[in-house]
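>> Question from a student workshop board

For tomorrow's exercise we were told to take the sequence and the ligand below, predict the bound structure, and bring the output to class. My setup keeps failing. Could a helper post the expected result so I can at least see what it should look like? The ligand is flavin-adenine dinucleotide.
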Amino acid sequence: MKNENNIDIVGGGPAGLSVGYFAKKVGMQAKIHEASSTIGGNCKTIIDGEFKYDTGAHRLHDKSEYVTNEIKLLLGNKLKRVTSPSKIYYRGKFLNFPISVSDLVYNLDLSSLIKIIYDNILTRLRKRPLPESFKQVAYQSYGKTISKMFLISYTEKLWGEDADNLDPTISGGRLKALNLRSLIKDLFLIKKTDSDHLEGAFYYPEQGFGEIFNALGKKIGPENIFLNKKVCNVYHDNNKILSVSDNNGENNFINNLVYTAPIDELVKSLSPAAPKHILDKLKFIKYRELMICVLYLDLKSFSPNASIYFPDLECPFTRIYEPKNRSTKMSPIEKTCIVVEVPMGERNMKIDSAKEVVYNKILSYLENKNLIKSEKIINYKLVKVKSAYPIITRDSALIIKEIKKYLSRFNNLNMIGRNSSFEYLHTHNIMERSRSLINEMISL
Ligand SMILES: Cc1cc2nc3c(=O)[nH]c(=O)nc-3n(C[C@H](O)[C@H](O)[C@H](O)COP(=O)(O)OP(=O)(O)OC[C@H]3O[C@@H](n4cnc5c(N)ncnc54)[C@H](O)[C@@H]3O)c2cc1C
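>> Workshop helper replied:
Here is what the output should look like for this input. Compare the format with yours to find the bug.
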């Protein structure tokens, strides 16, 4: 049966659930088709005995007042404001993240500091063109010396691409230019300015980040969420999506389709097939896979930090986070666990590496740097995070525009979400876009 107000949503991750939630709020009927057996996509909280952890170092960035307030309404006092600064592990030292001027002054040698000041004066004197790559964004924000020390190696390890091939958008707009005035003031031991204070406040649900998406799922209602339904075919007449069918062969007529799964999957599932020149472009659309390794520790605490970043190329992982520092409910009082994020791919460990190989590499780095003693590890678990990041290179950013242009012919199709829009989005961006989409739909 067709109904003007129906929306079918492919994917039950943050994007699909947000669209479903806002649709339900305005009285539209929304049906979610989710390929796996659970909702939450890449934002799940896994419960393992007395421990809980998220599939990555998630936090609610308080960047959208509307979204933060909506989540406060949903979770009430279960949503906590947490203050826990992050660090960068650099040559045996823990430096502040985001990069802090006073820290550099106290932890780097004089010659590095002079280079940093020189770079930054040069950067400000030179005319700054619009950056075309991540490398240019980093150089323009921090100068060459700091970029090479912390940003370039970390970014290349995370994305598996050269920094000058990566699109500027992968910085997520988070690289603030270094405050040169405070650097000089600190160097000459002049009183510190307010701009030097640590940034480390965010929101986090008591029972893990996944609690937000479970709450959205509850509001949508289990009767509207269809699990283990992988949408495999999307039928159309060149202007409109007509129906979708799933892995069980079930067919659904479509009034409005919101697609939140990876964009290349959508193009491949079109019937009649997309033109060859579009299908040929899909080989340039790639996603970064991640392995998270959870170490259960017989320790009250590993560190006081929200996250610790590891730019060192010898190190097989990019980041460690300790769930207990986001909510004390995540681990028992006397124990803790840490979640180690390992990017997988050609330049790093292979996604099909044996679990022991991944674990042993992590352990050997941590032991070598005296960050952990193996006798404190009670157990470990490895979890794959598929399609964690769309790899937005300068080339793929152009190709994706062509693909989106082709898809724009379908007037009842919308794409929302990180891999469907092929943008480096966080959940607050996704929720904002979902709300706007529903508002647009009801105003038509
Ligand atoms: C390590 C890491 C840390 C992060 N930290 C933060 C953070 O601190 N704050 C923040 O806001 N965001 C963070 N993010 C980003 C956040 O996880 C993503 O923005 C979010 O998961 C994207 O949601 P989505 O619904 O677009 O996609 P996904 O989460 O990938 O969900 C897509 C869903 O679609 C389903 N699906 C796929 N194909 C089909 C199909 N054919 N048919 C039906 N269903 C299908 C999948 O099973 C999945 O459930 C982080 C991400 C990672 C990887």
